[in-house]
Amino acid sequence: MKTCQEFxxxxxxxxxxxxxxxxxxxxxxxxxxxxxxxxxxxxxxAASMTFLATMPxxxxxxxxxxxxxxxxxxxxxxxxxxxxxxAASIAALIVAIIWFSGENRxxxxxxxxMRLQMERTTAQLANAQAVLQFLSEPETKQxxxxxxxxxxxxxxxxxxxxxxxxxxxxxxxxxxxxKTYELWVIPNQGTPLPAGLFQSSPQGDxxxxxxxxxxxxxxxxVAVTLExxxxxxxxxxxxIFVVPLTGL
Amino acid sequence: MSLTRKADWQFRxxxxxxxxxxxxxxxREPQAMADLYDGYGRTTYSLILRIVRNxxxxxxxxxxxxxxxxxxxxxxxxERGALGVWLLAVARNRALDYLRSVEGRMTQSTxxxxxxxxxxxxxxxxxxxxxxxxxxxLREAFAKLNPHQREVIEMAYYEGLSQTEMAARLKQPLGxxxxxxxxxxxxxxxxxxQEAL
Lengths: 248, 197
Fold this sequence. Notes:
The complex is a heterodimer. Chain A is of the alpha+beta class. Chain A folds into 3 domains: about 5-55, Arc Repressor Mutant, subunit A; about 65-130; about 140-245, Immunoglobulin-like. Chain A is built from 7 helices and 8 strands, in the order αααααααββββββββ. Chain A has helices at about 5-10, 10-15, 20-30, 35-50, 65-70, 75-85, 90-135, and strands at about 140-145, 155-160, 165-170, 180-185, 195-200, 205-210, 220-230, 240-245. In chain A, the strands form 2 sheets. Chain A has a 4-stranded antiparallel β-sheet, covered by helices on one side. A 4-stranded antiparallel β-sheet of chain A has the order 5-4-7-8, with no helix packed on it. In chain A, a hairpin with a 3-residue loop joins strand 2 (about 155-160) and strand 3 (about 165-170). The model of chain A has no long low-confidence stretch (mean pLDDT about 80). By secondary structure, chain B is mainly alpha-helical. Chain B has 2 domains: about 10-125, Rna Polymerase Sigma Factor, Chain: A (Orthogonal Bundle); about 130-190, Arc Repressor Mutant, subunit A. In chain B, helix 3 (about 55-70) packs across helix 4 and helix 4 (about 85-105) packs antiparallel against helix 5. The radius of gyration of chain B is 17 Å and the shape is globular.
């Protein structure tokens, strides 16, 4: 186990969530014991690294953004002044304005959430299109795994020498908290190569595309392991499944 | 970006009146939110835009950031907390969360990100910990980093990558990336006079 002095070299990387899993677990184990020195050190490091927030070119936000932000929490100076001036004489109107302003605020916040959701959906659509293109190319080859067995993960691995490896699996329960699935491309000779991290859905389905060229002749298998959330450079657990790429 | 243009990055981090500002936010004073935005809006917008590189998305995320602060400020310990550090942590996490979702990098669960921006994490250190002089020193030290050192620190902060992910992205051995990161942090620490960052 490292000393507090040795951990001190990791404070900033821990605060930025950039440590590799082994070191992260080590420092967390140490913090769980209640070390006040390291706990304070990490908080100080997190604050200091905030200087990076000042590094990007400082740009003036659009003027309407201020209004939007204030409106999102129900504050709009001019409206309130206007309301105050007429409050005594037209109480009913105030009630209506408050209701509409609340409704407007709610709708505006909902709009932001929807816009962000739309961005995410667009990205998912782009991914789906890449998968479709992958599937439609005649040179894409397919290997099934786990067939005929109801419980273990099963599915297919599709390979395309130009486009990469596509994994489609079912019966793969969501990774536990703090863990993720990692795909490995295992060459005929040499060590497994990390090919990306992915999660499965609550229903146990997973679809993951590792883009980029892959040498099919030099690849012997594809495997999946359970790894710490930030991934590993080499497998740290027994593979959940290994798919040999024979007969391609 | 020039370091000599002080006005470019001057912002309110841990200033004395943040304590009063937090109190006013907790009392739901309308002008407090306007003051908060006027103090941090530009830095927040610039940081988020640097991460997501899309003005429309950046505007939405700025709104989401300030709304979060408004909704969670009751849990912030203003006795010793630094409001700006918390606000910018929320901004960074919101932007990284967005980036991860569009890139399909789902390595961190929502609960982990929520934990990273919990107000309690930012309410337990002295106000003076990140004053303007300290920021200036760190910025000067950052300018001294070599391109590799700078790249890994930027990838960690603006892209939320772990060292393992950086190694894969840069096609470099993990040990090399760790060396770059740690030597970069040593330069920053040395600039502050050997004290911990």
